[in-house]
Design brief:
mainly beta, Thrombin, subunit H, 6-stranded antiparallel barrel, 1 helix
C-alpha cells in the first residue's frame, strides 16, 4: 500500500481507502440495505448506501462486509451513525478494530 491510498482524518486515525461490498441493518427496526464501504479505520468506516436508507445520526447499526484479503474475511461489527450526507454514512465502531485481529492485520497491511 502506498501513501496515496492512505490519508488522515481529523481524529488522527489512519483511514484506508477501500471498495468493499456489504450490508447493514438498523438495530431494532426493519431498515436494511446494501452498501459500499469507501474507507475504513480502527475506529469506524464510511460507506455509500446503495439505495434509500432512512438512517439518522445516533442510529445503532450492524455492519457486515468482506475484506478483499486472500481469505475474503467476513467482518461483522456494530456501530453508531455519526454523520449522514445524502447516501454517504459515517459510522463509529462500538469497539475498536484494534481488538479485532483480522481487521487490524488488514488495516496495517
Amino acid at each position: 500500500m502506498d501513501l496515496s491510498e492512505m490519508n488522515q482524518d481529523r481524529r488522527d486515525h489512519t483511514r484506508k481507502k477501500v471498495a468493499l461490498h456489504g450490508g447493514y441493518i438498523k438495530i431494532g427496526s426493519e431498515i436494511m440495505g446494501d452498501m459500499l464501504v469507501e474507507d475504513l479505520s480502527f475506529t469506524g468506516l464510511s460507506f455509500m448506501a446503495l439505495s434509500s436508507h432512512g438512517l439518522k445520526v445516533g442510529d445503532t447499526i450492524l455492519l457486515k462486509f468482506r475484506l478483499d484479503d486472500q481469505n475474503l474475511t467476513e467482518i461483522i461489527r456494530d456501530g453508531v451513525v455519526r454523520y449522514v450526507q445524502d447516501s454517504r454514512i459515517g459510522v463509529e465502531f462500538l469497539r475498536s478494530a484494534s481488538l479485532d485481529r483480522d481487521l487490524g492485520f488488514y488495516l496495517l497491511a
